[in-house]
Amino acid sequence: MVSSFGKFLRNLRMDLGELLLNMACKLEVSPAFLSSVENGKRKIPENWLSKIKKLYKLNDAQVAKMKEAFYDSNNEVEIGLENLRENQRNLAIAFARKLETIPDQDIHKILRILDKEKN
C-alpha cells in the first residue's frame, strides 16, 4: 500500500521527471529502500524532511504538504488479515470501520477485556 509520504515522493519525482534511481542516489539509499518507503513497507527516515527540502528546494507549500504526508504515513497502521479466520477478519474490519464512533466508556471496556486476555 502506497503511503501518503510515498505518494508525495512519487509525485515530486514525476513532476521533476526524475527516476527512482536518481532520487535514491541523492538520498543516499538504495532504489529498493526508496521503493519500500514509497510503498509504506519501510519507516521514513526522519532526516529526509530536511534533506528533501534542501535537495529539491521546496517552497513553503510543498514543505507543508510533505510534513502532512510524513505525519499521516507515520500514523497509518496496516493489519495483515490473510492469516486470520473469517470471523476474525470480519471483526477487524467492523472494528476499523466503527473505531471513530466508539464512545470512550466502551473503549475502556474493550481495553479491559483485551488486558484480561494478556494475563
UniProtKB/TrEMBL annotation:
Superkingdom per UniProt: Bacteria
Protein name per its UniProtKB record: Helix-turn-helix domain protein
Source organism of this protein record: Hallerella porci
